[in-house]
Every structure is written in structure tokens, then in C-alpha cells.
Hints:
SH3 type barrels; 2 helices; mainly beta; Porin; 3 domains; 350 residues; five-stranded antiparallel β-sheet; twelve-stranded antiparallel barrel; single chain
Amino acid sequence: MRHFFLLFISVIIIDLGVAQTTISSESSAPSYVRLVMFDGTSRMGEMLESTDSEVVIKTLQLGVVRIPKYLVKGMATIADREYELLMVAFEGRELELNPQSSRYFFAPSGFQMRRGDGYFQSNIALNSVSYGVTEHITIGGLISFAGAGGQLKIGKQLSPNTHASFGGIGFMDYNGNLVDRPIGLVFANMTWGTENRNITFNIGTGTAFEDGVGDFYAYTTDSTEYSWMPGQYYYTFNVTEYDQEWVRPLLINISGMNRISENRWFITENYWVQNLRYTTRITGGNLAVSSLPLPSNNDFNPQADGFAILSMGIRNLSPRNGWLWDYGMVGVIGDDFGFAAPWLSATLAF
Length: 350
């Protein structure tokens, strides 16, 4: 009986030891979390410590990171398997995502906004709002002192480091001068790289505008009247067949972005704008033309003129309130002109 009692006590001790070992093993299992910051970025890692003032996590790329709690908008626990899947999904990309990788100063990149994300941007002269309807569709609105408009962007990820998109921008003025022909721009682009380090090639074209009258082919003289120059007469013609001249801009854009610190990015945005000219034959029209000499063939110059826009600057993220500040310099260079101006804009994600 005594031996049986000792054996019973031994079994209980062993069971308690095993249970204690199991509990200790379970309590030492890592816990993974995802932190959503007020500036729109996201960080994931193993939870090490959480105090009243900070959260300490161990990330895959940066190691142990201490994050002040006033920067954290929300925190969610991630299961082991979910964390592994997220790591695979984010492979080759920065975990601390660029909150405005979908655009540079103004030009779009191939990256899309995430569903439900949006931002408001203002540089005083032009204000805009953009919103991610889905992972592939972004819509927005524009408003300024001169007029208002809208924008649409559709994009897709082609490979881990290649993104493409296309879309358009439309704009109308308040005075109604552009009612018959509002300003429009369509574009397509390709972006190579990560959200924090990339380069984008954009190509686009805009609305064609009338740019005067070219050659006359049929006209009649309606009247003559004496001009201010002695011996000169001022002729008025009704032109019924002529060439209408048009100009349509072609835009080529190359932009780049590189993260230079935790909350700061270098940005360059550069355009070449070529004004392509062409004519349309108008027959049966009634164009009133006044001229001192009789009209002759006004040879149209098929040469296109263009200019370049060069810019570079810094995007800075304020970790306290989430505002992004873009500041830099913009230079415009033409054949016979050129000037430079500062650029400043503010963006708030929502």
C-alpha cells in the first residue's frame, strides 16, 4: 500500500511538471501584430512589449523597433499562418509602405491606391481629392480658382516590381470658355521598382485647340474701306474654303522616387511637351477675314514647337499628424524663354 501511494505521488508530480512545461512552452510562443499608423503606413512584426507609452516589435527588415503609441491608430493580432502569408505577399517590398506611392508631385505612377484609401492634396492654386474605389480603380476631383474637373486611373501589378496604369483628366472653366471643348488629357504609364524606390515612364496627349487659319482656297471680296494709311485699302473677304490649323500637345514624362530616410523621399518629375500641329480642310464655310493685302497662300509651318519642365525636391512625412509636405524647384525651358519657380504642396491621407 505504501509503495502504491509513493507511485501515485510520483505520477502527479510528473504530470504537473509536464503541464508546467506545456504552459511555459505555450506562453513563450511568439505573438505577431500589425500596426496601422495615423500617417497611413503599416508595420508588422513579433510583439515584444507594450507599455503605456510605446509598442516594441521585432520586424523582419529593421529588427527591434520602438514605436510611440501616439503614432499608432490601431493594432491587430495576426495568426502565425497569416503572418507567414503576409510576408510572402510583401516579399521584395518595403513593409513601411510609402503613403503616396501612386503619384509624384503631380504625375501618376503605375502603383494603385488601396481600396478605401484616399488623400486630399493642395498647393493653393490647385486642390484635388483621390479615392481608391478598388485595388485597380482610383477616382478623383480637381478644383481651382479657374475651374474644376475629374480624374480616373486604372492600373494593375504585372510582376512583383512592375506596375502599369492608364487614365485621364478632364477640366472645365467657370466662365464657360471651354464648354464646347474642355481641356482633357489621357495617359498610360509603366513603373519599375518598389513603392519606395522606383522610376516611371508616362506618355500622354491632350485636347486639340484651334490655332488660326492656314491657306485660303476660295474667297470673295465683300467690301473695301479706306484705312489709316494713305493709299492703302482695307479688304474684307468671305472665305468659303480654307485650312483650319490645330495644335495638340504630346507629353512625355519621366519621374523617379527614392526613399532617403524613414520619413523622407527624393522626387524628380520631368516633362517634354511637344505641340504637334495639323490642318483640317474646311469646305463650304463662311469665314470673315480682313486684311490689308489680298490674301495669298499662307504657307503653314509644319514644324512642331515644344518645351521642357524639370523639377526635383523632397517629400517629407510628419509622423505626428500624418501630413505630407512636398517642396522643390520647377524649371521651364523653351527655345527662347525659361524661368524657375518653387513648388510647395500639402497632402493628408484619409
